[in-house]
Amino acid sequence: MIPIICQEELGVEDAVKLDKQKFLIHSDGVVSQLIYAVRKHIVGLRSSEGIFLFLTSRDGSRVLLSNNNLLGQLDAEYQDTEDGFIYITVAKEHVFG
């Protein structure tokens, strides 16, 4: 199981509001499963809004997660060395009209 902490995007006027930030996902799962779980815990998200998940790499750059990324591979590459969590930023975008 992989411990993941999802954070709201900072500095954005219309940022998502999460009612749950900590998730525990199987290592053989994919990002689309995490998106499904996170989407259920976003307050007031409309069906016309999509969400995107970003990681911050060790060099400080942001990485957009693809739906088919395996969470086990992300854990091996992006896990925080101090506490063992993966920190993911959740952003929303009006994509369906």
Task: Assign a percent range to the helix content.
Answer: 10-25%
Low-confidence stretches: none
Specify the overall morphology.
globular
Q: What class, by secondary structure content?
A: alpha+beta
Q: In a few lines, what is going on in this structure?
A:
The protein is α+β, with helices and mostly antiparallel strands.
Give your account of this protein's structure.
The protein is built from two helices and five strands, in the order E-E-H-E-E-H-E. With 97 residues, it is an alpha+beta fold. Strands 2-1-5-3-4 form a five-stranded mixed sheet, covered by helices on one side. It starts with a strand and ends with a strand. A hairpin with a 5-residue loop joins strand 3 and strand 4. The model has no long low-confidence stretch (mean pLDDT 88).
Features:
single chain; 18% helix; globular; 5 strands; alpha+beta; 97 residues; 5-stranded mixed beta sheet
Present the secondary structure layout.
Elements: E1 2-8, E2 22-25, H1 31-39, E3 49-56, E4 62-64, H2 71-78, E5 86-94
Parallel strand pairs: 1-5
Antiparallel strand pairs: 1-2, 3-4, 3-5
